[in-house]
Design goal:
Blueprint: E1 34-38, H1 47-55, E2 63-67, H2 74-86, E3 93-97, H3 101-109, E4 113-116, H4 125-132, E5 137-140, H5 145-148, E6 154-157, H6 162-173, H7 175-193, H8 199-202
Parallel strand pairs: 1-2, 1-4, 2-3, 4-5, 5-6
Length: about 200
C-alpha cells in the first residue's frame, strides 16, 4: 500500500466475519470424547501429524472426525487415510470429505474439542467457527493462530510436533481433570465469541 502512495493512517485490517452459532453440546452421555478437525486434507493443515499424535493416545477413549475436502491434494489425503489404517485407527478417525453447512454445524455441535494441527494459518476461519460454538481448542503456533485464538481458550504447540500435540490432547481427554480443563476453556471460548464480528459488522 505504501508503494501506491496510500498513507498508512488510511489502511485498516478487517477481521473476517463469524456468525453466531449454537453452543456445542458434545457427544451423547457415555460416549467417548469427540475431536473435530475442519480443513481441507492438504499438507499445510497437518492431518498426518494429527493421526500420528492420536496413535500415541490409542490407550484412552476418543473418536475423531476430520471434515474437509479430500480432492485438493488427493495423494496426501490417501497417504493420511492409509496412515490411519496402518496405525489401526480407521475405526476411530473418520474422514467425511467436504460437508454442507448443516452437516458441518452438526459436527461442531457434537464435538468435545476442536483440533487444528496446521503448519501455518493466515487467520484460521475454522478456529473462529470453533470459538463461536464454545469449543476448547488444540492447535499450533503456526502463522496467525496465536493472534486468532485467545490463550485461555486453547493449548498451542509447535507445528509438526506430534509428541507435543499428543500431550496437549491427552491433558484434555483423560479423566475428571481433563473434563474440568475442557470446561474452563469452553467457558473462555464462549466469552470470546461475544467479541467476534459478524459478516455484516465486518462489511
Amino acid at each position: 500500500m505504501e508503494d501506491y502512495g496510500v498513507p498508512t493512517a488510511r489502511v485498516r485490517a478487517v477481521l473476517p466475519g463469524t456468525e453466531p452459532a449454537r453452543p456445542a453440546q458434545g457427544p451423547a452421555a457415555g460416549e467417548a470424547p469427540r475431536l473435530l478437525c475442519v480443513g481441507s486434507v492438504v499438507p499445510r493443515k497437518g492431518q498426518d501429524v494429527l493421526v500420528r499424535a492420536l496413535a500415541r493416545l490409542r490407550h484412552i477413549r476418543w473418536s475423531c472426525v476430520c471434515a474437509g475436502s479430500l480432492d485438493r491434494a488427493p495423494a496426501f489425503a490417501s497417504t493420511v487415510r492409509a496412515l490411519a489404517a496402518d496405525e489401526e485407527l480407521a475405526d476411530r478417525v473418520a474422514f467425511t470429505g467436504e460437508c454442507g453447512q448443516q452437516a458441518l454445524d452438526d459436527l461442531y455441535h457434537s464435538a468435545s474439542l476442536f483440533v487444528l494441527p496446521s503448519h501455518h494459518e493466515g487467520y484460521g476461519m475454522a478456529l473462529a467457527e470453533a470459538l463461536a460454538r464454545g469449543l476448547p481448542i488444540v492447535s499450533t503456533t503456526g502463522g496467525a493462530v496465536p493472534h486468532t485464538v485467545p490463550a485461555a481458550t486453547a493449548i498451542l504447540v509447535t507445528p509438526g510436533d506430534e509428541a507435543a500435540l499428543a500431550d496437549a490432547l491427552g491433558h484434555l481427554l483423560v479423566g475428571p481433570a481433563g473434563a474440568s480443563r475442557r470446561a474452563r476453556m469452553a467457558s473462555a471460548a464462549r466469552t470470546h465469541a461475544l467479541c467476534l464480528p459478524t459478516w455484516d459488522r465486518a462489511a
